[in-house]
Amino acid sequence: GAGVSQSPRYKVAKRGQDVALRCDPISGHVSLFWYQQALGQGPEFLTYFQNEAQLDKSGLPSDRFFAERPEGSVSTLKIQRTQQEDSAVYLCASSLGTASPYGYTFGSGTRLTVV
Amino acid sequence: DQQVKQNSPSLSVQEGRISILNCDYTNSMFDYFLWYKKYPAEGPTFLISISSIKDKNEDGRFTVFLNKSAKHLSLHIVPSQPGDSAVYFCAASNTGTASKLTFGTGTRLQVTL
């Protein structure tokens, strides 16, 4: 597609529920990033993939967070046993180049609300 | 510890005047800086960037200035237009770990008629 597509746009989860957020990057983009944006804050880095390899997961806040990109295209961010502090907008971004922040294209995000 | 700071949460400017958005950083390892613009319910879009080897970069109405000694950068928009009303995020990276961007908390710009 023309842009980075994320689904669902909105997700309401009960505390303790598992959720899966999907990202379809721009076709051919090698690099894929996940960011978490809490209300009133800037995006915070979660993890980075180059093709199917997860090269940096230093931003994942706990072992309840898991991301994968098994075929080097679509990526899924999974959050297990959601908690209220997980409520945020989850942004996915992709870029054509490798290990480069230049020319990121962000998706519109998934707004997760944990009740 | 906030490594990238945008101390003004909001700014209001009249159409046609200059908008100046400021950003400070603390990590001296940062060597590449970017500005992103964000409209409600959309993802951030890249606006302009600058490498630490430069002190100015210009693209149309947008100019970014970098003062390395002060660890300060600014975005100038001249002339400001109503369509510029959005949240602006400053971001920084260490090209040694170029995959990761550190963002500020954003400044909401309102351009009034």
Q: How would you sum up this structure, described in words?
A:
The complex is a heterodimer of chains A (115) and B (113). The N and C termini of chain A lie far apart (33 Å). Chain A is globular, with a radius of gyration of 13 Å. In chain A, a hairpin with a 6-residue loop joins β7 and β8 (75-79). Chain A has strands at residues 5-7, 10-13, 19-24, 31-37, 44-50, 53-56, 65-68, 75-79, 88-95, 105-106, 110-114. Chain A is mostly beta strands and 115 residues long. The model of chain A has no long low-confidence stretch (mean pLDDT 93). In chain A, strands 2, 4, 5, 6, 9, 10 and 11 form a 7-stranded mixed beta sheet that branches. Chain A has a 4-stranded antiparallel beta sheet with strand order 1-3-8-7, with no helix packed on it. Chain B is mostly beta strands and 113 residues long. Chain B has no helices and 11 strands. In chain B, strands 2, 4, 5, 9, 10 and 11 form a 6-stranded mixed beta sheet that branches. A 5-stranded antiparallel beta sheet of chain B has the order 1-3-8-7-6, with no helix packed on it. In chain B, a hairpin with a 6-residue loop joins β4 (32-38) and β5 (45-51). The chains are: A mainly beta (115), B mainly beta (113).
Relative strand content of chain B = over 45%
- Average predicted confidence as pLDDT of chain B: 94
**Order of SSEs of chain A:** EEEEEEEEEEE
Largest interface, Cβ cutoff 8 Å = A-B, 29 and 25 residues
Helix content of chain A: under 10%
Number of strands of chain A: 11
Report the sheet with the most strands of chain A, covering strand number, pairing sense and barrel closure: 7 strands, mixed
Distance between the termini of chain B: 38 Å
Number of helices of chain B: 0
- Overall geometry of chain A comes to globular
Average residue-wise pLDDT of chain A: 93
Order of helices and strands of chain B: EEEEEEEEEEE
